[in-house]
Amino acid sequence: MTTPVAPKLSPSESVLQSVFASAGRLNTSTEVVELLKTSWREVRAQIPVRMDNRKLQIFEGYRVQHNGARGPYKGGVRFHPLADLDEVRALAMLMTYKCALMDLPFGGAKGGVMCDPARMSETELNRLTRAYTQHIGMVLGINRDVPAPDMGTNAQTMAWMMDAYGQRYGYTPGIVTGKPVELGGSFGRDQATGRGVATCMREFSLVEKTNPRDLKVVIQGYGNVGSWTARIAAEMGFTIVAVSDVKGGVHNPDGLDIAAVDKHFAVAGSVAGFEPADPITNDDLLELPCDYLVPAALGEVITGENAPRIRARVVIEAANHPITPDGDAVLNARKIPVLPDVLVNAGGVTVSYFEWTQNIQQFRWSLQEVITELEKKMVATFHELMTRTAKDGTLPRQAAFDISLERVAKAITLRGFV
Ligand code: NAD
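A: This is the predicted complex of the input protein with nicotinamide-adenine-dinucleotide.
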């Protein structure tokens, strides 16, 4: 007889599991929970793009606005072959809770286009971004929905979005965040998510009374989040022993020279091949013995299957939703603490908030002001979460959802949504 296998949860079902558990602990009204189960609005758009070879390719794109009780919708735009509607919906839900946890005056949204940006030219990406913006423009607005970069998109993508939106609706720099500084972007937005991740690592080391100098860190992903985490954590004294990207990874148990990795990356376009280090696959990298394991690339990389083999002392979720619920259950049973994504990678949306306020005020903060304010916010929220965890005897992810669901539910009720 075969043992029945639990059906695999979709990304949005996984997020909802955390929300339902939190609603149970908080005794949240069933009407509020019912409202939060689905999105307020989901746009699915057909995006025809004339490719460089003159052939027409039709992409599918989405903008999901999950809940806006606490303010304008906020969330990144992902260009990735796996960015389907359910993944984008799950990420929009996470944004609702992330913004609430950080106490930012935003609701949650996310956008995505199913495409492979690595296989597209700059001109194709420019046309795709403009067509996408044209198709979702009617649901955006500086006080309605403000996109930002995510996987596969960057400051250049935001410049194209801002320009395409402006051509139709008038010059509006605050319509997106994560723009180039020359177009009204905030100093420090590029490093913000990584700085937030590294700040959480430093604060956790203080809580467990360890010294970053004695801690070995493994990072999966060397894009915006992974590379900045590596740089700033190295500056803080952590020893980065392994890093990777889609082409492969490198491992040196004595520590990698991150400045030298950056130089190699600039030439090779990948961390793979860096020396002195041994090559390692992305799967094996996740199972290296280390103090802090930082998944900073794709979602759902730690599952029920590989979680029993994870040898990190602590997992720091820099990517969104890098652990499946069954993987989470295994890590919890093994008493491996997990710092949740809604806290760890919230530095990005926090500086996006600073950028939005600077745009509205037509004013600019210095890099040092941005870094100081970001660190204040990350440190305060980190300790609020730790205090709640200790008070309620909950896990950090549970405490994060409890704090944020309380805030979202309060706003929903005050505004009379239910
Ligand atoms: P990015 O596109 O800049 O980098 C992604 C990295 O992941 C690259 O190094 C890429 O090579 C690697 N990668 C892609 N596919 C992989 C695979 N199959 N195996 C291993 N590595 C792979 O993206 P990013 O902005 O750094 O985002 C990374 C994660 O952080 C995502 O989960 C994103 O949602 C999350 N996040 C990003 C921000 C932000 O400000 N950029 C904010 C919050 C959360």
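Residues 149-152, 193, 220-226, 244-246, 282, 296-299, 318-320, 345, 348 surround nicotinamide-adenine-dinucleotide (CB under 6 Å). The longest strand covers residues 56-67.
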